[in-house]
Design brief:
With 158 residues, the protein is α/β, with parallel strands linked by helices. The protein has 8 helices and 5 strands.
Amino acid sequence: MKKLKIYLDTSVISHLDAPDTPEKMTDTLKLWKDIDTAKYDVYISDLTIAELDRCPEPKRTEMLSALLDIEYTEIAQDERSKQLSRLYFEVGGLPPKSKADAEHIAIASVNDCDIILSWNFKHIVNLRAMTAVEDVNIKKRYKNIRILSPTMLLDEEE
C-alpha cells in the first residue's frame, strides 16, 4: 500500500510541547510516533522552517530538534505555489491576514501531498477553506488535498 504524503504546517510541530492544550499535545505526540515508524511520507516547507526560526527560545531549539528525530522531505515555495495561494484568497476561502496559511496549503498542493495537517481551525481546518481549496485545485488541475487536524488523521487510521 502506498504511504500517504502528509504536509506538516508549523502549528503541528509547535504542539509537540504545548502543555496549555494537552489534548492537542497528546495527539501530536502520537502522530510523531507514527511518523517515526515511517508510516507516512512527511513533507515540510521552507516556509515552516522560517516560521520555526522566528520562534522564541527555548521553543525554537526544541522544535528544530524534534525535526531531527524524523525523516522528512523539505519542499520550497515557488511561483506556482504563490499563484495558487493568491487564488485561494480571490475565491474567499481564506482571510487576507492568513497569507502564510494559504501559502502552506498551496505548497502542499503543488507538491502533490495527500493531506495537510494543521491545528489552525480558524484559517485552515474549516469548511470555508476546504471548499475553496478543493474548488481552486480542481480548476487548476491539482489533486484535491485533504485538510485535517492530527486528531482527524489518527481517528481515521484506528
